[in-house]
Amino acid sequence: MVRSLALAQSKDNKTEPFVLYGKTNEKAHKDQVECDIVVHHVPVSSGYDVSPLAAYRIIRLFRQVDVLHFHYFSPMYAMCAMICRKPTIYTFHGNFGILRKKTIKDYVKRFVIKYFIRKSVDVVTYNSNFTKKCAEHIYSICNVKTMVIYNGLNIEDISGSADCLPNDVKAQFGNKFVVGACGRLVKIKRIDRLIDAFAAFKDKKSDVALIIVGDGPLRDRLENQIRMRGLSDTARIVGFQRNVFDYEAMFNVCAIPSSGEAFGLVALEALAMGKPAIVFDDGGGLVEIITGGNPADIVSSVEELTERLEAYYAKRHKMSDEAQRLRSHAGNFHIKKAAGKFLEAYDCALASSASGTSNMDKRA
Prior knowledge:
The chain is α/β, with parallel strands linked by helices. The protein has 15 helices and 14 strands. Helix 4 runs parallel beside helix 5 (104-120) and helix 8 (191-202) crosses helix 13.
């Protein structure tokens, strides 16, 4: 998301972005060389490190820009921002650990974020209304300008081909109606709901399959659920895959059974490829993506998910008619629109900060 945003900003002639990474990595180098994004690295092995040398380098970089835009929280970066007193945007992308047991570290981090926002942040943005509701409850955010700016994608870059998949995958699933899911195998993703729905959907069908792309701590439990439901021949967890779009190209339907998802780029990717995306009504930001497309694809139970799969299976030979409409809806979340909204947020930050005034030629 941040990479796509920086690319879009670098092309709009109104914003000159550079990206600061806390660690050097191959992808960051590729961004700089191939995408003409200015990238800086200040090695910080942990967000909680306190290094005078790193702080000095960060402060020097921060003083070169007009607006600071934070996409995650680090006490080191926050401290440097408070020293520089630059107009500051803080974006919540979710990841509140809603289903995870809280530790003392979590509560300390919440307190520090609340202090940073109250003292130094001019505009807070959220990637969905669901994220906004959660963040405002957790951090008691008030007396600061807030905006909901949905995540975006460079829609033109979303493409894949099932021909590029391994031969064993093509042989097993190539001629079947494929229900697919992508994501980390963690509790919030609720892949168990999809397996249960697929087990009911598969009954008396020999031409359907389930592919789950992703890995995580629940993989063994989910594979055991697949065996217990008698789905070993038709359902498969293929693990983490770099060419995820090639797998999505094989899907007939993408099912995203998450509960409390902050946004859900996987749903947007599916729509951009012309694939229906079915979500649950407790799916958080996912619901906001699907509402404007096909509200019937928002279900409230495993039984309703099974019914939607049945509906798409019944019209499986005519689904291409709907693909263009889904791609058109995905265009509402183009990264260019997000970049334009963030430009408005930068103007707001500049206007509300005592150190600057609004202008249209800024670096962030």
